[in-house]
Amino acid sequence: MLGKILLTLAVMIIAFFFVRQRDMKGTTKPTRSTSPLEQPQDKTTSPAESNLSADLRLGAYMFLVLVIGLGAALYYFQWQDDHSILTVRLHSDGQAEAIVYHVYKFQLAERSFTTLEGILVTVASSERMEVEGL
After folding, report:
1. What CA–CA distance (Å, rounded) separates 126 from 104?
2. pLDDT tens digits for range 41-98
3. What number of other Cβ atoms are within 10 A of residue 67's Cβ?
């Protein structure tokens, strides 16, 4: 979790410095201080400002697509891992052979599980449980 936060912060800082550097390379026009009541007389934007705005918008959309794509891929891989089928063998003290069950990974708990057929099995303290496929 901490790695995800640090990666996000690193991308944001790099993007900030990239945009700031591009802004410094562009033409700078002198600014004058105006009071909040004064309205600027020239409402047109320079081509450099509109280009920067378009680049920022494109960068924001690309970042959004990247984040959504990574989230969807991680969700899919987690779902795929949870739906892998495991083999569970229960060894009881009084039985010579183990009982074999097939279980989805997400339905396997510490002392109980639900089989593919929907049977809820609780493991007794005298039984030994072996899980194959982890």
Report:
1. 24
2. 555 667 777 777 888 889 989 999 999 999 999 999 999 999 999 999 999 988 889 9
3. 12
- Give this prediction's pTM: 0.56
3-state helix, strand, coil in the chain (%, to 5): 45, 20, 35
Distance, C-alpha 111 to centroid of its chain: 30
Residue 61: HSE in the Cβ half-sphere, 13 Å Cα cutoff: 6
Alpha carbon of 63 to those of 56, 58, 108: distances in Å?
A: 10, 9, 37
**How many Cα neighbours within 13 Å face the side chain of 115?**
14
Give the whole-angstrom CA distance, residue 117 versus residue 102. Answer: 9
Q: What 3-state DSSP class applies to 28?
A: coil
Residue 123, Cβ density class (10 Å: 0-12 exposed, 13-18 middle, ≥19 buried): middle
CA 91 to chain centre: 40
What does the block give as tokens for 1?
Answer: 């979790």
102 contacts 83 by C-beta, under 8 angstroms: no
Q: Sheet of 99-108: strands edge to edge? A: 120-122, 112-115, 99-108, 85-91, 128-132
